[in-house]
Amino acid sequence: MSDSPVTTLSPDDSWAMLRANEFGRLAFHLADEVHITPINYAIDAQDRIVVRTAEGSKLLGLTMNADVAFEIDEFDDEEARSVVVRGRARTLDGHEADETEQLPLRPWVDTVKLNVVAITVDELTGRRFSLTRPWLHLRPHEV
What we know:
Strands 1, 2, 3, 4, 5, 6, 7 and 8 form an 8-stranded antiparallel β-sheet that branches. The protein has one domain (6-138): Pnp Oxidase, Chain A, CATH 2.30.110.10. By secondary structure, it is α+β, with helices and mostly antiparallel strands. The chain is built from 3 helices and 8 strands; from the N terminus they run βαββββαββαβ.
């Protein structure tokens, strides 16, 4: 590891992190505003981020403007890792939507989500941050 507290994850490490997780945040445009929402996802065989969504503002925003950003992160006491994707969203239907049934895409909320959206990755960046977290050393000692 370098002396810098911030290092770049390789594309392979960034993809591995995306594949190992299932929860992230999707940023999208809706009219003149940018929205961000937590979302469950899976990675398909074409290396697309696949999500399911119900009718509503998220689907409307993705339909009106396909440009999106997606982010996941994880951390422990020693380091934090973040992967950011920029890409284009497209609603899948027919055979393409049916193919996603085999993905480990598990909604956390038991609501009907009939719309399948795939995000084609245009740009992928990953970072690792070494944490100093001095406040951990300032905890009172138990006697």
